[in-house]
Specification:
The protein contains seven helices and five strands. It is an alpha/beta fold. The chain has a single domain, classed as Rossmann fold (3-Layer(aba) Sandwich), CATH 3.40.50.
Length: 155
């Protein structure tokens, strides 16, 4: 089963804590042979942007950022989905009509086009999926579902 992780699940790899996400839980998911793990190539940008902010504030060391990105890049169990595919850009533009954050739109479009399960903690995105995009997503990928990490960790 293909599971697409939102970028927030990778922050622990650069030593940035995220409420309700533990590095251990992510590690268990990555080791689970029942799942193929995917993410957007935008994960590199999002980790770099957040990491840079924390480096400037003295909260994070550059080595933490570099080590985390290197781990994600070199870990073959995580497939990175490029953002330049026309079908992803077209679907992202559809989402953009009702969602302000274009990065979220690209990530969701990538998830819809490449996976069965999307794991996110972004409640605004979940709300838009339910309120605005259910039909569009169902047409693009009828088996696509949004879950939490704890939902799939229970299996």
């Amino acid at each position: 089963m293909k599971v697409f992780l939102d970028s927030s699940f990778f922050f622990p790899f650069i030593r940035v804590d995220v409420k309700n996400i533990s590095k251990k839980d992510i590690g268990n998911l990555l080791r689970n042979t029942n799942y193929d793990i995917l993410c957007s190539e935008l994960v590199y940008f999002e980790l770099s942007a957040k990491g840079s902010k924390y480096i400037v504030q003295g909260i994070l060391e550059m080595e933490d950022l570099l080590d985390g990105i290197s781990f994600i890049h070199n870990f073959n169990k995580i497939a990175k989905i490029p953002i330049y595919h026309p079908e992803i850009l077209i679907l992202a533009q559809e989402f953009r009509k009702t969602h302000q954050d274009y990065i979220d739109c690209i990530i969701l479009a990538s998830a819809v086009k490449s996976s069965e399960i999307f794991i996110t903690m972004d409640y605004n995105l979940k709300e838009n999926i339910e309120e605005h995009w259910k039909d569009v997503i169902s047409k693009e990928n009828p088996i696509f579902v949004v879950k939490t990490l704890s939902d799939i960790s229970k299996k």
